[in-house]
């Protein structure tokens, strides 16, 4: 019995590979027919979703804080009030985030430096905050963001990645705003607790405290305060606000791009400005990716080989009890933005998974890990997963890049694709990541339990974000990519490896 099942599994595995290959050829042929120089097939699929008013979220893992965390933010500064806010934060020993206006940073560059030197985070709040100039369309917003990036980079040495829309994104941003800013390497943060200090002209300190400390707190409060404008009452309210969160046991976090953002729900009534044609989108997308590449951000830009790992030691990977290990020399991996990037084939090897390397430099890599087949395709920036018991999932816009012809993916994320995970890691005295055995990481399995035709559930940021519809997407690309999965399911059934049989096999 065991032998028969094993044979069937092998047959299903072989069929999966054949059908994936067939499906990919179909995609390639279709791309050849329709690809314009401006947009790849994957970018066009994104365009079609954005133009329908759908948000498209990045495949990004966020660091979950391990204790209750509140994020205080101060907008519209710096101003003459900023030093007083800094004094209070220093006395209380807490950190915060300052979303600065370019015009104010020009006027108070010393305060910009002071905020950075005291260890707070700095974000971009556009140049002048004037809605009439910011929100006619994406380009007008981008112009002010880039202008402010230049000003802050001139003072700080680098441009902040955080962006907050004056007045918030709701009613101002279309899905194109979110997507293009993300592609340019920015992280957009709204808030979920408004202190009300700027809502009324003469808000009193007591009202501000009340606003900043609502009875029903979100899981991670992102509190909106201001240090620009007349902020006497905010300064008066601040110690009590901090006391409130301290008494409740909160840690005070500062924002960075690894914090799961709060983003307001996109309101379909947002004035769209000029129609976003495919050509205009293509140009803006290319520009956004150029901006990210210039700053060394993002998975689209080919990284300089060895970037971030020059003069750093090798990285040792080990897999739990199996004792398998591999050592990646400097240059064979990189440590960028706090994350390790590795070849999926090397990672698969350590996990004891079978990897089929790319046929050509920079091509797709196919990995079999347990009952999963995973195809990582840099041309489409997609990851197709097929569970041989009949479940599939496709991740679009997955983070990956090609370095010297070798595909690289973020280690932690890829380990989860393979049903593993990071057990622990060290940076010193040596760089070492210990992986869980493939298939041992139960929580990630839950993600694959999407029925075949329900469409992929998106990994999304947070509260306030609209939930994905779960409907099958109707683009042709979508059908092409889902096609092979259907064939695998049929083929699996044909060789007797139906979901039922697979469940029986698992039960042994
Ligand atoms: Zn503001």
Automatic annotation (TrEMBL):
GO MF annotation list: hydrolase activity
Domain NodB homology: 68-253
Record has NAD as a keyword: no
Entries under Gene3D superfamilies matching the protein: Glycoside hydrolase/deacetylase (3.20.20.370)
Domain of life of the native organism: Bacteria
Keyword annotations: Hydrolase, Membrane, Signal, Transmembrane, Transmembrane helix
Signal peptide: 1-30
Region (Disordered): 296-323, 453-473
Membrane-spanning parts: 481-505
Stated name of the protein: Polysaccharide deacetylase family protein
Natural source organism: Paenibacillus thermoaerophilus
